[in-house]
Amino acid sequence: MTAAIRSILTPTAIIRLVLGWGAFAVLLFAGPLLTPPVAGPLLVTALIAIVGVILLLAFGVVHEAEHLARRLGDPYGSLVLTLSIVLIEVVLIAAVLLGPGEHATIARDSVMAVSMIILGGVIGLCLLVAGLRHGSLAHNRTGVSTYLSLIIVLAAIAFALPALIGTNGSYEEWQEIPIIVLTIGIYAFFLYRQMGAQAADFHEVDPRLPQIPAEVGAESASTTVATTQKQGIVEIISAHRTEIIVRLALLIATVTPIVLLSHDMASLLDDGLGRLGAPVALSGVVIALIVFLPETITSIKAAWQGEIQRVSNLCHGAQVSTVGLTIPTVLLIGLLTDQPIVLAESPANLLLFAVTLLLSVTSFAAKRVTAVHGAAHLVVFAIFGLTLFS
């Protein structure tokens, strides 16, 4: 084992892995004891222990993500963290669909919860934190506009169109194949452009940041960054192959138990919230919050440092990936297993999501975002929380 690998696989990182996977193993073996209804003290103890382990793992994920982001630069560094979490979440949703029972609405409920959390809660909190600490901040409007264009199109395909051209909130079988092809096609084309010709559209442009020359304006800063980078992504990967592979493997190994533990604790959370009289939908929101905890922490740290474009890369990128990967996956599973996939949302959720998208467009259409923009996003997210109890 080389010194470089030892510097990555530190005792702290190994302890995190042991605790994370050990907690998952304990939940597997303790299945009968934790089958609802669970005794009150045991239920509370199990939930506290699981959340504690997840928090510990989340900080480990953030640590590795920040190292990768510094080494690879954006948008590649943010993309690694985003795809790691989203891919595991998509696999777990697919596993539920392939399992026993009826789960026709799981994809819709999961993606909607994640969408409101990202576009309302996380974006709002980041803009509020960044605005209060740094004042108004410039972002790369071309990159953010690219994200929002994809989000609007994919959201319409996922949540609105099935109610208009489908049956009972589901696409007809003959409609699903073109929807799958179009969704995968636009998402793949987006990734191809983001990692290639349009990579500079996702770089920081605020002149106050250390890597941006002060005399360069927001409109031309992305071009300046692109031309001043002496190493392309291929050269960086080639020069630091071992470090990148080990850190990427460690990040995935640390993220996976977070998602597994989150879904394993779903039944416990449903049991506890049911005893408190809380709505069932609240459990899905709490699980989504926990699953995206590492990305949330990373986004808030970027906002604290004034890196508002990285906040967009993490949050808007996660939203595009969540919808772009989840919808075609569940539709394909529905075709292969001959089960209905309900995607159409309720009028209340559609209205709130439309308001969130409109607010996102107006917020990031400005040359600079402010704390007031963040407060507006948080208000919409709070209203979404109220609808859960309605």
Kindly describe this structure:
The chain has a two-stranded antiparallel sheet. It contains 16 helices and 2 strands. The chain has 390 residues and is mainly alpha-helical.
Biggest sheet layout? 2 strands, antiparallel
Strand proportion: under 5%
Order of helices and strands: HHHHHEHHHHHHHHHHEH
The residue-averaged pLDDT reads 82
Helix content: over 70%
Provide a count of the helices. 16
Chart the SSEs and their pairings.
Elements: H1 3-8, H2 11-29, H3 40-72, H4 76-98, H5 106-134, E1 137-138, H6 141-165, H7 173-194, H8 218-228, H9 233-239, H10 241-264, H11 266-276, H12 281-291, H13 293-304, H14 308-337, H15 347-365, E2 368-369, H16 371-388
Antiparallel strand pairs: 1-2
Helix pairs in contact: 2-3, 2-10, 3-4, 3-10, 3-13, 4-10, 4-14, 5-12, 5-13, 5-14, 5-15, 5-16, 6-14, 6-15, 7-14, 10-12, 11-12, 13-14, 15-16
What would the keywords be for this entry?
390 residues, mainly alpha, two-stranded antiparallel ribbon, 16 helices
Brief sketch in words of this structure:
With 390 residues, the protein is an all-alpha fold. It is built from 16 helices and two strands. The protein is globular.
